[in-house]
Amino acid sequence: MNKLTKLLSVFALAGAIGAGVAGAAGCAHKHTYEEKWTSGGAEGHYHGATCHEDKHDDIKPHTWDDDKDTTCNDCGYTRTVESGTPTPTPTPTPTPTPTPTGDKLKVPADAVALMVEGVGDEEVQLSAAKKSHAIDKTGIKVYFGTGDRSNPTKSTEVPADNLDLKLVDPKEQTCSSWEGLKMNGDYTLTAKLKNAVDSEGNALDENDYVGTILVKVINKATEIALKEGATTTQAQSVVDGMTSTWTYEITRENEDKEDVAAKNVTVGRIDHVHTGERSAAITTKVEGVEVKGTVNYTISATDGAIVQSYALRAADLADKVSGNDGIQKADVELQDGRFIVQATKGGVDDHGNEYDGKYFAKRLKFGGHVLGDNSKAYIKIHVDAAALITVYGYANTGTAGNGEANRYLSIYDGITYTDGQKKATLGNIIGDKQNTLQKEDTRHTFNVTAAGDYYLVCESGDVCISYVQVDQIVTTGDAVNLGGDAAPSALNLDTSAATKAYKKDATVSFEGITGSITYANAVTLDSTKVDIANADLVFPESVDTSKLGPKEVTVEYTPEGGSKLTAKYTINVESEVAGVWGATAKLSSDVNTELPEGSAADAAVTVKLSDLEAAIVGNSTTATATVTEATYKAEGAEGDGTAITAAGVGITKGKYVITATVKVTDGDDEATFENLTIEINVTVAGEMSELKLNVNDLTAEAKYTADKVLKTGEIATITALVDCQVEANTGTTGYTNRLKTGGSVATNKKAIKVQLEGKATITIIYKKGGNSRTAGLYDSSQVLQQHSEAEDSSSTLFEYTFTAVNAGTYYLGGTNGINFYEIIITPAA
After folding, report:
1. Which of 430-439, 562-571, 723-732, 734-743 comes out lowest in average pLDDT?
2. Residue 38 burial by CB count (10 A; 0-12/13-18/19+): exposed, middle or buried?
3. Which of 14, 72, 10, 9 is nearest to 43 (CA)?
4. 395 near 482, Cβ under 8 Å?
5. In which order are the strands placed within the sheet that holds 185-193?
6. Which of 147, 418, 633, 805 is deepest in the core (most CB within 10 A)?
7. How far apart are CA 607 and CA 658, in angstroms?
8. pLDDT > 90? residue 656
């Protein structure tokens, strides 16, 4: 007898008791059978499985009235009977009991598999009443299976001394104990032979006969919540000092609790403006399934005070300086004197770093420390009252994760210069020197207790500053006249308006905005609701107000007897469903748009309405989206198109555009989004066809530590290399994700590899990670073949087409980070 291979053994595994036999390993399924008999030829008849076409129970002998009867009474099978010669009914040959060869177990010659039974329940639901599950190892019995390898018949039992039993948990770790099982998922019980030989006396490998049975333990995560000790009360402010204390845990169906890392939890919008009891949605994914929860928190009023925030980004200085030339001759004043910047030897250049949920496109380099000769290097910050100053910065030397020793950021209340402005003398330090700066951005905070001018400096070495935020608490007094001499020089409303969402066509009243600030006076408009007389919500002419989503708006206010004041904000314009700005639609990945090779001209792919998938654009966690109707027409064709029905339509070879209508609902609220387009390209196997990658179709993931194939077609394969990353992106119309290369192109990282099977054009839709960057097409030697236009913008969505005149391997990227949204590869003649 030839020994069975490991593959055959595993395929023929069974886990049933009695006549019914389970399918292949990995299936804890119980077959059900038809009542009628089905003929199996001269051998006999059987009951076919109702759940699998190729399964049946044991074959039973035909039944005849007598030796001359030619038709089986059960299945109708007919036989030929010679006159006068009776046909005996075949008698099954008994399977011999295995006989040991010396101290070895001899496997029966007709054995094809091992069959495991006696495990007990094969699907166990845990609960508060049943905290865990146990498998009794002593009750497990293993038998040889004979006959059909895909549907064996239980034969003789394997002695326990010749069995090696192992239980593996859902994370593929061997279980030392078979009691207290409560991990969610499939436990795999595997039986293997030991001390055994085949029927010819040949030694057997442990994998020649393997039996497996699955025990599914269901103990899913049902809820995520805060752990005890988290801060859930905060004073009214735009600064979030509360969620940084939050730690999380999930609860499973058996009431066990497990910690969840904060980085894996998404927290819904936190309202720091409106006082009172509030709640926020929190979500995480456990074993690939989204688990939801709610956090209840309180925003308490700041009696007699309001909080105002303003910030300096290094990007705000980009048009004030030129590269490394620095800020040479004079202080640069920003925001009406709230910030004054001096960095004689420094300058502003690209950064592109992300930290603490913020993206820093630029960095300000001091180019030296404040106490050096001829080294004016500081940021002067003006505050109207006590304030918290938050700074993001890093040491401009050292290695990643480690800064240069004795490089500190500090705040002083004054600087004076002597010796012809060469030497700086510092005033009084505010608090202590901050921790040693790292080689990447870290956050540093300073508390100042009174109004005045303060200087942010480094006393040793060179540092870079990415972002400075000031949150000042201003005590309100009597309201002052907004007109005449008392008129402020700007209408500085609370920047919490930047996160406030408004419904389309709604009247905007800026609820929760508590006042405006002058340099010398605090102005109280209304502590609960601000309806400013003569204030208008003005959209710039370049904004299409028919589309929802984030909008830049201008609030204009003209006080009586004074001049017009303005303030700009970004708000989210919603649909009729709260938290929803729009919807998207796409073709399900289950639809195969490739016809078989050699298909006739009228061969078609069937597309049904249910094949069109929809999703919301916005921050709602409860709204759902459904495609309610759709039409399709050939690309570039005129007319309304052909309706796609629930039953489906046939779409032949070619490029088409599907126009869909999506309905979004959330409870009783609903909104309809029309004219959403989906591109479909029906191709024939063997023919070169266009390959299109839309990053919206990818799953957001952290930086790749190994190359990952994103899409494959006849013309090309698109692969993201090490250090690339797919992340959620809500700031670009039409795209919910972006694919970041994360730095300078290389043939082993930070690039998109395109392996072409022939000539092609490669079209990319992209943004630059910073200004003055170009996207390039490089060959396998990292030699630049072509590059895009050098438009100086990191916020514009560009489209560019490269031409590859030969098959081969190419790389898409830039001399610094490029963000990709679509890649379209089209065969060229």
Report:
1. 562-571
2. middle
3. 72
4. no
5. 123-125, 210-218, 185-193, 163-168
6. 147
7. 11
8. yes
**CB atoms near residue 490 (< 10 Å):** 15
For residues 608 and 647, what is the distance between their CA atoms, to the nearest angstrom? 6
| Mean pLDDT of the region 204-213 | 87
Take residue 282 and report the two structure tokens written for it: 């929190």
The answer to whether 743 and 723 are in contact (CB under 8 A) is: yes
Residue among 457, 240, 480, 267 nearest 368 (CA): 457
Instruction: Summarize pLDDT for 349-394 with one digit per residue, the tens.
Output: 888 777 776 777 788 888 777 777 667 788 999 987 778 888 888 8
Q: Is the pLDDT of residue 660 over 50?
A: yes
The whole-angstrom separation of Cα 44 and Cα 693 is: 55
Structure tokens at 366: 């001091």
Cβ atoms < 10 Å from Cβ of 241: 14
Report how far residue 775's alpha carbon sits from residue 797's, in angstroms, rounded to the nearest whole number: 12
* CA pair distance 708, 744, nearest whole angstrom: 18
Judging by DSSP bridges, how do beta strands 276-286 and 289-300 pair with one another?
antiparallel
pLDDT at 7 over 60: no
* Cα–Cα distance, 574 to 564 (Å, whole number): 29
Partnered with residue 40 across adjacent β-strands are 42
What secondary structure does DSSP assign to 82-105, as a single string? -TT---PPP-PPPPPPP-EETTEE
Q: How is residue 660 written in tokens?
A: 């869909």
Q: Where are the alpha helices (DSSP H) in 168-327?
A: none
Contact 626, 634 (CB under 8 A): no
pTM as predicted: 0.36
CB proximity list for 826: less than 8 A, separation 6 or greater: 690, 715, 760, 761, 763
Instruction: Determine what percent of the chain falls in helix, strand and coil, rounding each to the nearest 5.
Output: 5, 45, 50
Nearest alpha carbon to residue 496 among 269, 770, 788, 787? 269
Mean pLDDT for 679-702 is 86
Residue 133: the pLDDT is: 94
